[in-house]
Amino acid sequence: MRIDKKVVDLIALADQLSSEYPEDFDLIADTLEGEGLDEILGYLLDKIADDEDMVIGLMNRESEMRERQKRLSKRIDHHRSTIQDILEKTGLKKFEMAEATFSLREQSPKLVIDNEKEIPEGFFQEKVSYVLDKQMLKDELAFHPVSGAHMADARPSLTIRRK
User: Fold this and answer.
1) What is the DSSP letter of 144?
2) In this structure, which of 10, 39, 49, 132 has its CB flanked by the most CB atoms within 10 Å?
């Protein structure tokens, strides 16, 4: 029998036993153990470990690819800068080739902030932003209803400890 089918069958059995014997947790646990609960949980634990390994591997690979992207971008910037230097030193404003045309164009001056603390106050604008205080909202909901929000029952959290 496939493990997926066993999982579905085990969940169905757990639901059935819970409805027939809602307070007899020992009976439910013993029955599920007899039906292969250890095997299913062990299989699922192995799957979690496999997927965690894949996530770690992908994160490492992603980091490597990000570093490679940075190196390539730096190389592109260096090549562009070299082309610009050549055009500026030769006095050429434009150079045409079959596969590309290179041209230099004057840019408008750009702002450079040397020391923001020295800039007169009149150049600053007040910025107002509103942020929801979730803790204050939760505290209020403990005693009174608040339009637009409510507290919901949280699902139990699963903890897995590995030896």
Assistant:
1) S
2) 10
CB of 27 closer than 8 Å to CB of 21:
yes
Return the pLDDT at 163: 64
Q: Measured between alpha carbons, how far is residue 42 from residues 38, 51, 55 in Å?
A: 6, 14, 20
Q: Which amino acid is at 1?
A: M
Total number of residues shown for the chain: 163
In-domain check, residue 19: no
Spatial separation of the C-alpha atoms in residues 36 and 39, rounded to whole Å = 5
pLDDT at 2: 78
Question: Which residues contact residue 13 at a Cβ distance below 8 angstroms, ignoring those fewer than 6 apart?
Answer: 31, 32, 35
Q: Which domain holds residue 82?
A: 36-141
Taking the complete model, does pTM exceed 0.70, yes or no? no
Radius of gyration of the chain (CA): 32
Report the pLDDT value the prediction gives residue 1, as an integer from 0 to 100.
Answer: 53
The total of structural domains in the chain comes to 1
Q: State which H helix or E strand residue 81 sits in.
A: helix 37-90
Sign of CA dihedral 81, 83, 84, 90: positive
The parts of the chain modelled with pLDDT lower than 70 are 1, 157-158, 163
Q: How high is the pLDDT of residue 159?
A: 74
